[in-house]
TrEMBL record:
It comes from the Eukaryota. Transmembrane segments: none annotated. Residues 409-459 form the GIL1/IRKI C-terminal domain. Residues 34-45, 63-75 have a biased composition (Acidic residues). InterPro entries: DUF641_pln, GIL1-like, GIL1_IRKI_C. It holds the Pfam family DUF641. Residues 30-77, 154-173, 204-226 are annotated as: Disordered. It comes from Panicum virgatum. Residues 95-210 form the DUF641 domain. This is DUF641 domain-containing protein. One of its GO terms (biological process) is negative gravitropism.
């Protein structure tokens, strides 16, 4: 085609073929004729060629409108599809962010609950609950740290929209909560100090109540000792030994000592619950303080004054009882540390706590060294011990001031429960025919000369069972 010469006939043939293959509008011939008449000087072949090209490029107005409408519909569909994809991606990111925030709120609520449990374990002080609550707080904080790392990874991968740059920094957002937490901790410390002060005041008030002189009714005519006065003193002695046993149990828990193992080593009683440990320690304290109660000097010496002049000995004992009743034991031992009561307290303290147990509970053996050196420590723990020791010493003075002196008895392990001679430390007496027997004795009982009975305290177990 390139080498073939182009002639006028070839051009006419091409134009005719193009016009036949493409329908021309009705005014095409007229326009062409007019244009030919107007432009006689122009090239006719150029006019023919340009007219054919116009025929190909200029469709009708309806067709142009249809094409433009189709193109607009296609562009609108494409735009809708692109907007739909963007909305789906935005919705997916929003769902991921909402799920993560829900987990964060749950984790924060878990931290609040764990911190509330930690506060509850402070008062009353419970080391076991403290350890469990502390572990729960650490676990919740670790959960929050994992959520933080997950948020950072998701934000880096584009799964979660980035944070607003205009938002305040995290440190500034957390600062008010840290300040509130510090304030709560200061309040907790002040409350704990207040509780300790109230405990000391309660102990002092209890001591004053125990030492307050009672009305003349229980003392009988002429101020002579009576069985009712002995019963009252016996109850006071039991209350004092229970208080000291509770203090001892509290110190064991605070020091992190295995309460069951320590109680078994002291009492030889298998301990399976905190309530049982409390009663077992009370039995141990009572047994140590009342050991040798039947002797006039707790076997601290070989005195037999009660046999040489029984009446004078009873008067002397009752006089000592009245003189010592209104005195604080620490004040008495501060003046006369080696008096009879001082020797009794030193001996019983050494028997009450073995050296290893004392070091585990108190942290050192300073109390034992002071007692062996002839002095008495001025510590809250030793003060509580002196209150219990004084209550038992007063009961002993009153016992040897009575005529006849009361006899004490103790329920043996496995003995049948008799409500007229025994009382259960659990409070409610067992039902008839319940098959309960004595697991171990907590405190001995006393039979007085007038026939009255101070019942023994016992811990009951099912027949054939163990404490």
């Amino acid at each position: 085609m390139a080498s073939k010469p182009v002639t006028v006939g070839d051009l006419i043939h091409r134009v005719a073929t193009s016009c036949l293959s493409n329908r021309l509008p009705c005014n095409y011939i007229r326009d062409s004729v007019d244009s030919d008449q107007e432009d006689d000087d122009d090239d006719p072949f150029a006019d023919a060629v340009s007219s054919s090209e116009k025929c190909r490029r200029s469709p009708s107005a309806a067709e142009v409108e249809d094409q433009e409408q189709q193109q607009e519909e296609e562009e609108e569909k494409l735009k809708i599809w692109e907007e739909g994809g963007q909305e789906e991606r935005k919705a997916a990111k929003g769902d991921a962010a909402e799920a993560l925030m829900a987990e964060v709120f749950d984790a924060v609520s878990g931290v609040r609950r764990a911190y509330a449990a930690l506060q509850g374990a402070h008062c009353p002080w419970d080391p076991d609950k403290m350890r469990a609550a502390d572990a729960a707080v650490v676990a919740e904080l670790r959960h929050l740290a994992r959520l933080r790392d997950r948020f950072r990874r998701s934000a880096a991968a584009g799964h979660i929209p980035p944070p607003n740059p205009s938002a305040p920094p995290r440190r500034e957002a957390v600062a008010p909560y840290e300040a509130a937490l510090d304030d709560l901790q200061r309040q907790l410390q002040s409350k704990q100090a207040e509780v300790d002060g109230l405990k000391e005041k309660l102990a002092a008030a209890t001591s004053r109540r125990n030492g307050r002189h009672h009305p003349s009714k229980p003392n009988g005519p002429g101020g002579a000792p009576t069985a009712d006065l002995f019963t009252t003193c016996a109850e006071q002695a039991r209350a004092a030994t229970r208080a000291f046993a509770a203090q001892l149990l509290h110190l064991m828990r605070a020091a992190g000592v295995d309460v069951a193992a320590a109680t078994r080593s002291l009492t030889k009683i298998p301990v399976s619950s905190p309530q049982l440990a409390k009663h077992a320690l009370e039995a141990h304290v009572t047994r140590c303080l009342l050991g040798g109660f039947e002797h006039e000097s707790f076997y601290l010496d070989g005195s037999l004054s009660s046999l040489l002049d029984p009446a004078a000995f009873r008067r002397e004992r009752y006089a000592q009882f009245r003189d010592m009743r209104g005195m604080e034991p620490a004040e008495l031992l501060g003046v006369l540390p080696t008096c009879a009561f001082g020797r009794y307290a030193a001996t019983k303290f050494a028997a009450l706590l073995p050296p290893l147990v004392e070091e585990a509970i108190l942290g050192d053996g300073e109390h034992r060294r002071a007692v062996n050196g002839g002095t008495h420590p001025r510590t809250p723990f030793y003060g509580e011990f002196l209150r219990a020791a004084k209550a038992v010493w007063m009961l002993h003075l009153l016992a040897f001031a009575l005529e006849p002196p009361p006899s004490h008895f103790e329920a043996g392990r496995g003995a049948e429960f008799h409500p007229e001679y025994m009382e259960s430390v659990a409070g409610a007496p067992p039902r008839a025919g319940a098959g309960m027997v004595v697991g171990f004795a907590v405190a001995p009982g006393f039979r007085l000369g007038n026939g009255a009975v101070v019942r023994a305290r016992v811990y009951l177990v099912p027949r054939g069972g163990r404490p």
